[in-house]
Amino acid sequence: MPEVAEVAHVCAQLRRNILGHRIKSVLASNDPLIFPFLKLSTDPDKELSTFQNALTGCSVSSIGRHGKYFWMRLQPRDKSSLVLLMHFGMTGMVKLRNINSHLIFMENGGDKKRLDKLKQTEKEPSVADEEVTWPPKFTKFEMTFEDGDNQVEFAFVDPRRLARIRLLTGDSIQNDLDLLNHPPLDVLGPDYSKPRELLKQEQFTMGDPDPDNHGRPRLTLAEFNKLILTKKKPIKSLLLDQNCFAGVGNWVADEILFNARIHPAEVISNKIDNVTTIHPVIERLYENLVYVCETAVKVEGNVDHFPKHWLMLHRWGKSRKKEKPKTNDGYLLDYVTVGGRTSCYSPELQKMLKQDSKIKATTDKQKFPQGSSKECYIWSLGNI
Fold first, then answer.
1. Of 85, 104, 186, 289, which alpha carbon lies 20 to 30 A from 131's?
2. What are the extents of the domains in the chain?
């Protein structure tokens, strides 16, 4: 599933290539799963035609994102703005014709393809390399954008049809602050890849295409501490809760816990109950939640630019590997099911906690590979 970093890359691609463009043409499939507004319609074809006509002629005024959702703010002539809100589901993706993308989805053998390419010292596979015909297979939604003589073709693909595309209108969505208070965005938690306060932005070229938290800042450490200690569920399951941590998916959650040295099945509130003092375990979790989300977004999900000590580069292909995988630092990895989801972790580094009175702060630097945990967090934000 595309997570916060992959969504950020798609938004970056859109911002680089279609911002300010006008929608020349639209073609949408009659699929009530992809387009929820068709489900209750008595005349889906007419409803789809109205949708397509509403988009045609609009210009793209901005690109936004929050968690796993992203949107285009569209400006019709002499009318209030519209919002085209999208979510990839499990297998959705946006492709732009003849525009390369560095994204490599490591699941389903993607990691093996990447390694094979690296061994052959060939260039990375890209969208432009792989797509011979247009539109791509499993396309559900197409648009053509134009700006003068420049034309960009857009395709939204989804083999499993779990993605969602909505068109939002009205006074309640005329700015992104209000948009986040509109369903389905209103129930989402903070996106921890975004700073609490927006810093002055230089002209965008690479990295985070939308660092604005749109009025939903990530929690402070003190607020985060209270949240963790009021939840009675395994920490991996909690991190996957979009109502608390928008954008965190399976691999991001595993990476956070690996860097924080916390077992994915740990129920932290069962071991720590002092809400007045922030425990080092919770502080470490908070720092690495921010670190992993910010770092992954900063490099737009490019796996070849992730820190070399990360778990993500080695967690895939469990069924085909004869031996247990190891990290770059030599730590053996194993798998455990938590809340119905497969979690990858290091048994050596991620042990279950003892009771609060017996937990001590981790100060042994030899337990942490160079460039990990808090030291890595500080280093990475300034050096990637």
1. 85
2. 4-97+134-187, 221-383
For 128, list phi and psi in degrees, rounded to 5: -65, -35
- In the CATH hierarchy, which fold is given to the domain comprising 221-383? Helicase, Ruva Protein; domain 3 (1.10.8)
Same fold across 4-97+134-187 and 221-383: no
Query: What tokens were used for 278?
Result: 């922030």
Report the 3 state secondary structure along the chain: CCCHHHHHHHHHHHHHHCCCCEEEEEEECCCCCCCHHHCCCCCHHHHHHHHHHHHCCCEEEEEEEECCEEEEEEECCCCCCEEEEEECCCCCEEEECCCCCCCCCCCCCHHHHHHHHHHCCCCCCCHHHHCCCCCCCCEEEEEEEEECCEEEEEEEECCCCCCEEEEECCHHHCCHHHHCCCCCHHHCCCCCCCCCCCCCCCCCCCCCCCCCCCCCCCCCHHHHHHHHHCCCCCHHHHHCCCCCCCCCCHHHHHHHHHHHCCCCCCCHHHHCCCCCCCCHHHHHHHHHHHHHHHHHHHCCCCHHHCCCCCCCCCCCCHHHCCCCCECCCCCECEEEEECCEEEEECCCCCCCCCCHHHCCCCCCHHHCCCCCHHHHHHHHHHHC
Cα 147 to Cα 153: distance, rounded to the nearest angstrom: 12
CB 275, CB 225: distance < 8 Å: yes
Residues in the chain: 384
* pTM, entire model: 0.87
pLDDT digits (tens, 9 = 90+) for 269-308: 999 988 889 999 999 999 999 999 999 999 999 999 999 9
Distance, in Å, from the CA atom of 328 to the CA atom of 114, rounded to the nearest integer, reads 16
- Asked if residue 344 lies in contact with residue 231, where contact means CB atoms within 8 angstroms, the answer is no
Residue (of 293, 295, 311) closest to 350 by Cα position: 311
pLDDT tens column, 128-150: 445 569 999 999 999 999 999 99
In which residue are the tokens 């703010």 written? 73
- Those residues whose C-beta lies under 8 Å from the C-beta of residue 112, and which sit 6 or more positions away, are 317, 320
Cis-peptide, bond into residue 184, ω within 30° of zero: yes
Task: Check if the beta carbon of residue 170 is closer than 8 Å to that of residue 41.
Answer: no
Topology, domain 4-97+134-187: N-terminal domain of MutM-like DNA repair proteins (3.20.190)
